[in-house]
Amino acid sequence: PLGHREREPGDRLTHRVAQLLLAPSEARSRLTQGVYTSARSGNPIGLMEQALPEIIAAEPLERKMLKAIKAGQADGITWEDQLQQVLAMGGLTATEANLLQASRKLVQEIIAVDEFDSEELRLGAQQEVATNKQHAA
Predict the structure, then answer these.
(1) Which of 50, 27, 28, 25 is nearest to 37 (CA)?
(2) In 3D, which of 105, 106, 86 has the Cα closest to residue 96?
(3) Cys-Cys with 74: which of 27, 30, 85, 119 at CB 3.0–4.6 Å?
(4) 134: which DSSP letter?
Protein backbone atom coordinates (compact mmCIF):
# COMPACT_ATOMS: atom_id res chain seq x y z
CA PRO A 1 0.00 0.00 0.00
CA LEU A 2 2.91 2.40 0.48
CA GLY A 3 4.66 1.53 -2.79
CA HIS A 4 4.63 3.28 -6.15
CA ARG A 5 1.09 3.75 -7.45
CA GLU A 6 0.12 3.70 -11.08
CA ARG A 7 -2.27 6.26 -12.45
CA GLU A 8 -5.10 5.32 -14.77
CA PRO A 9 -4.48 6.05 -18.45
CA GLY A 10 -5.53 9.46 -19.67
CA ASP A 11 -8.08 10.21 -22.35
CA ARG A 12 -5.42 10.73 -25.01
CA LEU A 13 -3.91 7.26 -24.49
CA THR A 14 -7.36 5.65 -24.32
CA HIS A 15 -8.26 7.31 -27.62
CA ARG A 16 -5.05 6.10 -29.26
CA VAL A 17 -5.68 2.51 -28.11
CA ALA A 18 -9.27 2.67 -29.36
CA GLN A 19 -8.05 3.89 -32.76
CA LEU A 20 -5.66 0.94 -32.95
CA LEU A 21 -8.52 -1.48 -32.32
CA LEU A 22 -11.05 0.19 -34.62
CA ALA A 23 -8.91 0.04 -37.74
CA PRO A 24 -7.08 -2.84 -39.39
CA SER A 25 -3.60 -2.82 -37.87
CA GLU A 26 -0.83 -5.12 -36.75
CA ALA A 27 -1.77 -4.61 -33.09
CA ARG A 28 -5.38 -5.56 -33.81
CA SER A 29 -4.27 -8.66 -35.68
CA ARG A 30 -2.11 -9.76 -32.74
CA LEU A 31 -4.96 -9.29 -30.28
CA THR A 32 -7.45 -11.22 -32.41
CA GLN A 33 -5.12 -14.06 -33.28
CA GLY A 34 -6.90 -17.33 -32.57
CA VAL A 35 -10.36 -15.76 -32.53
CA TYR A 36 -12.92 -17.53 -34.71
CA THR A 37 -13.71 -14.89 -37.34
CA SER A 38 -15.45 -16.92 -40.02
CA ALA A 39 -18.55 -15.16 -41.35
CA ARG A 40 -20.31 -18.51 -41.69
CA SER A 41 -23.00 -19.90 -39.40
CA GLY A 42 -24.18 -16.54 -38.04
CA ASN A 43 -20.96 -15.80 -36.19
CA PRO A 44 -21.33 -12.15 -35.02
CA ILE A 45 -17.58 -11.62 -34.63
CA GLY A 46 -16.98 -12.88 -38.15
CA LEU A 47 -19.73 -10.58 -39.42
CA MET A 48 -18.10 -7.61 -37.69
CA GLU A 49 -14.72 -8.50 -39.17
CA GLN A 50 -16.28 -8.76 -42.63
CA ALA A 51 -18.10 -5.42 -42.19
CA LEU A 52 -15.14 -3.43 -40.84
CA PRO A 53 -13.57 -2.41 -44.18
CA GLU A 54 -16.96 -1.44 -45.60
CA ILE A 55 -17.84 0.63 -42.56
CA ILE A 56 -14.48 2.41 -42.72
CA ALA A 57 -15.01 3.12 -46.43
CA ALA A 58 -18.50 4.51 -45.76
CA GLU A 59 -17.46 6.80 -42.90
CA PRO A 60 -16.51 9.82 -45.07
CA LEU A 61 -19.74 9.36 -47.02
CA GLU A 62 -21.75 9.45 -43.80
CA ARG A 63 -20.03 12.72 -42.90
CA LYS A 64 -20.81 14.04 -46.37
CA MET A 65 -24.47 13.11 -45.96
CA LEU A 66 -24.69 14.66 -42.49
CA LYS A 67 -23.18 17.86 -43.85
CA ALA A 68 -25.82 17.91 -46.61
CA ILE A 69 -28.60 17.33 -44.05
CA LYS A 70 -27.31 20.17 -41.87
CA ALA A 71 -27.16 22.41 -44.94
CA GLY A 72 -30.88 21.80 -45.47
CA GLN A 73 -30.65 19.56 -48.53
CA ALA A 74 -32.71 16.84 -46.86
CA ASP A 75 -35.66 17.12 -44.51
CA GLY A 76 -37.02 13.59 -44.75
CA ILE A 77 -38.19 11.80 -41.65
CA THR A 78 -36.50 8.46 -42.27
CA TRP A 79 -32.88 7.84 -43.13
CA GLU A 80 -33.87 6.38 -46.50
CA ASP A 81 -35.87 9.51 -47.38
CA GLN A 82 -32.95 11.72 -46.42
CA LEU A 83 -30.58 9.60 -48.51
CA GLN A 84 -32.85 9.85 -51.55
CA GLN A 85 -33.13 13.62 -51.15
CA VAL A 86 -29.37 14.10 -50.84
CA LEU A 87 -28.92 11.84 -53.87
CA ALA A 88 -31.46 13.86 -55.88
CA MET A 89 -29.77 17.15 -54.93
CA GLY A 90 -26.41 15.82 -56.14
CA GLY A 91 -24.84 15.61 -52.69
CA LEU A 92 -23.96 11.95 -53.30
CA THR A 93 -23.45 9.81 -56.36
CA ALA A 94 -25.45 6.63 -56.93
CA THR A 95 -22.37 4.53 -56.13
CA GLU A 96 -21.84 6.40 -52.86
CA ALA A 97 -25.52 5.99 -51.94
CA ASN A 98 -25.32 2.25 -52.62
CA LEU A 99 -22.23 1.96 -50.42
CA LEU A 100 -23.99 3.86 -47.63
CA GLN A 101 -27.05 1.62 -47.90
CA ALA A 102 -24.92 -1.54 -47.84
CA SER A 103 -22.92 -0.39 -44.81
CA ARG A 104 -26.09 0.64 -42.97
CA LYS A 105 -27.61 -2.78 -43.69
CA LEU A 106 -24.51 -4.47 -42.25
CA VAL A 107 -24.61 -2.29 -39.14
CA GLN A 108 -28.31 -3.02 -38.63
CA GLU A 109 -27.64 -6.74 -38.99
CA ILE A 110 -24.82 -6.60 -36.46
CA ILE A 111 -26.74 -4.68 -33.82
CA ALA A 112 -30.01 -6.61 -34.27
CA VAL A 113 -29.98 -8.73 -31.15
CA ASP A 114 -32.99 -10.86 -30.34
CA GLU A 115 -32.51 -12.90 -27.21
CA PHE A 116 -36.21 -13.22 -26.38
CA ASP A 117 -39.00 -15.36 -27.77
CA SER A 118 -41.84 -13.38 -29.27
CA GLU A 119 -44.19 -14.90 -26.68
CA GLU A 120 -42.13 -13.38 -23.88
CA LEU A 121 -42.39 -9.92 -25.45
CA ARG A 122 -46.14 -10.04 -25.99
CA LEU A 123 -47.99 -7.30 -24.11
CA GLY A 124 -49.81 -8.59 -21.07
CA ALA A 125 -48.15 -12.01 -21.08
CA GLN A 126 -47.36 -13.28 -17.64
CA GLN A 127 -44.54 -15.68 -17.01
CA GLU A 128 -44.85 -18.48 -14.54
CA VAL A 129 -42.48 -18.16 -11.64
CA ALA A 130 -41.06 -21.49 -10.53
CA THR A 131 -40.95 -21.80 -6.79
CA ASN A 132 -39.65 -24.54 -4.62
CA LYS A 133 -42.59 -25.49 -2.39
CA GLN A 134 -40.35 -26.86 0.33
CA HIS A 135 -38.68 -23.49 0.89
CA ALA A 136 -41.60 -21.21 0.06
CA ALA A 137 -43.16 -20.56 3.43
Answers:
(1) 50
(2) 86
(3) 85
(4) T
